[in-house]
Write a structure and sequence with these properties.
Layout (H helix, E strand, L loop, with lengths): L5 H33 L3 H5 L5 H10 L1 H18 L5 H20 L4 H26 L3 H22 L6 H12 L1 H30 L18 H15 L6 H31 L1
Helix pairs in contact: 1-3, 1-4, 3-4, 3-5, 4-5, 5-6, 6-9, 9-11, 10-11
Amino acid sequence: MYHVNWGESLAMEKKTTALTQGAILSAIYIILLIIVAYVPFINVVVLFFLPVPFIIHVYKQGLKAGVLIGLAALFLTPLFTPLVTIMLTFFAVTVGLAIGYFFVQKKGAFTPIIAAIITYIGNYLVIFLLAYLLFDLNLVNAVQQMMEESFTLTEQTAQFLNLPLDDQGLSQFKETLALIPVIFPALLIMSSIVMGFLHYLVSKPILNRVGCPVDDLPPFREWTLPKSLLFYYLGTLILLMVGLAEESTLFMLVAKLHPVLEMLLFIHGLSVLSYFAHCQ
């Protein structure tokens, strides 16, 4: 008499479904990556959607399944797009896995956003470390040098064409270029915060649409940050006004921290204004 093992049958069906879904989402990711690599203008918008296939797969099939299609995407990337885009895939996979995992945990909307921010910062550190160890390349100095060469070329072109130049503006831009090594880490942190929020905003309606409910952000007027943030901001502001030596370690630390605190305080201020406007 033939005996059907329903447990094994269901497990096999679930595995087949996971593989099929993984293949479909991998294909969708490659299509998105091709658009980012080859279609101008639209690619800027599509860039924010790159982690979404991995978020969906982790939500539906678990972290291990998400890692597998992430590895598949890393393998497929150089077959369809330029080799340099493998870095985009690395970022999309790691951020997608982090967001998807914490979406499943249901610990509030801010948790996956914070996970994405931390993942971005960690990825930046890995890229910078690999560039230094493998190629003896300081990416911050490389960016500064590239911008200085571009500025010099623009200045020479303007002089050749007898175009008027704003000496004060040129001087301020040169000073800004000199500060790139100081402010660059702050820019990376702020970009990580922006990208974390954007990935949440674009993925939430898609996940809700495919049957993966996601926690809502609280109303903007209810966003709060620690009160100590104001004192940290005032402390860094006073230290900058005192006039620390630019070569000192303290100046480097304060200069990197101040823009981040300034942006957070600005967001908190908008939240307070929104609260009072709501009360009216």
